[in-house]
Amino acid sequence: MKLYTKSGDRGQTSVKGGRVMKNDARVEAYGTLDELNSFVGAAAAQAATLEPVRALAAELVEIQQELFDCGSDLAFASPAEDHYKVTADMTARLEGWIDAHADAAPEIRRFILPGGSALSASLHVCRTVCRRAERQIVTVAEAHQIPEEVLRYVNRLSDYFFAAARSANAALGEADTEYVRSAEVFRSAPRKEQ
């Protein structure tokens, strides 16, 4: 099988149900998800070599599969609800992982800079690329009908990367890098008298 088709030599690419220019907003969105997938793969490879966070690698590999699902769902030129792959269960599972990672990290009081361990920094790269993908998906949604669960999933995914970056630092014995000019912007809700 040849890796090149020459069909994109004039700047067009195929979507499910048609052809568009390679800089089409839809292609930008799922292309950024593909970029994110590469960064997630790099983070998973790092996590797999570190005993305290080895379980994180399995979560990240599952997320890689789901990012392909997101890209697949965005590649439909017209709505195709019967063929969408991203489900509410996937988003709910992410929420469970977010809660577990948040519980494993120290209480947050100030804004956090990407850093601490190399793995945490990699997960912050994933977070920021994920936010860019989300912005691009919103742009597509302004002009086309898209699968709404993809947007929910990607929105939750950036929260996952933030929580995972903090729990990775905690597991590896590294402190988060706080933004030193930040006030204490995150406070626990006061406990109610019983």
UniProtKB/TrEMBL annotation:
Enzyme Commission identifier(s): 2.5.1.17
Catalytic activity: 2 cob(II)yrinate a,c diamide + reduced [electron-transfer flavoprotein] + 2 ATP = 2 adenosylcob(III)yrinate a,c-diamide + 2 triphosphate + oxidized [electron-transfer flavoprotein] + 3 H(+); 2 cob(II)alamin + reduced [electron-transfer flavoprotein] + 2 ATP = 2 adenosylcob(III)alamin + 2 triphosphate + oxidized [electron-transfer flavoprotein] + 3 H(+)
GO molecular function: ATP binding; corrinoid adenosyltransferase activity
Top-rank taxon, per record: Bacteria
Keywords assigned: ATP-binding, Cobalamin biosynthesis, Nucleotide-binding, Transferase
Example GO BP: cobalamin biosynthetic process
Annotated metabolic or biological route of this protein: Cofactor biosynthesis; adenosylcobalamin biosynthesis; adenosylcobalamin from cob(II)yrinate a,c-diamide: step 2/7
Stretches assigned to the Cobalamin adenosyltransferase-like domain: 3-167
Family annotation (Gene3D superfamilies): Cobalamin adenosyltransferase-like
InterPro entries referenced in this protein's UniProt entry, alphabetically: CblAdoTrfase-like, CblAdoTrfase-like_sf, PduO-typ
Subunit (UniProt): Homotrimer.
Assigned protein family: Belongs to the Cob(I)alamin adenosyltransferase family.
Protein name: Corrinoid adenosyltransferase
Organism expressing this protein natively: Paenibacillus curdlanolyticus YK9
